Amino acid sequence: MSVKNFVEDTITSHKITVFSKSYCPYCRRAKTMFGDKYPDADIGVIELDERDDGSDIQEYLRQKTGQGTVPNIFINQQHIGGCDDTMSLQSSGKLAGLIAA
User: Fold this and answer.
1) For labelling alongside 1, which of 55, 57, 82, 93 has CA 20 to 30 A away?
2) pLDDT tens digits, 27-74
3) Comparing C-alpha atoms, which of 76, 23, 18 is closest to residue 44?
4) CA 66/CA 10 separation, integer angstroms
């Protein structure tokens, strides 16, 4: 499976998709928030540092979204951004609506 197909299939297979690195504190913060606030949501987490093709996936995501950093988060196939973007949506009360849609 190509990197593009893997990424697109992963995004469409989960309500929330987090492209992450296992050692990243911002990734950990976002994953913890989703787990605490939305424990019943279908969350797919891809740890790029644990995959042989992780750098290729990150490069494809950069081309797709313009964001080269992790976490790179999608909700209902919509690119949300990174940790700060996600936390801002949570603080404003908008994140729950995106997840519920």
Assistant:
1) 82
2) 999 999 999 999 999 999 999 999 999 999 999 999 999 999 999 999
3) 18
4) 18
Minimal CA–CA distance to 75: which of 22, 47, 38, 21? 38
Question: Which helix H or strand E contains 27, and what residues bound it?
Answer: helix 25-37
pLDDT above 90 for 1: no
**Phi–psi pair at 5, nearest 5 degrees:** -65, -40
User: Which residues, including other chains, have CB under 8 Å from residue 11's CB and lie 6 or more apart?
Assistant: 17, 74, 77
Whole-prediction pTM:
0.96
Element (H, E) at 47: strand 43-47
Alpha-carbon span 87 to 80, nearest angstrom:
10
Residues in Cβ contact with 92 at an 8 Å cutoff, skipping those fewer than 6 apart:
none
Domains of the chain, first to last: 3-100 (3.40.30.10)
Amino acid at 82: G
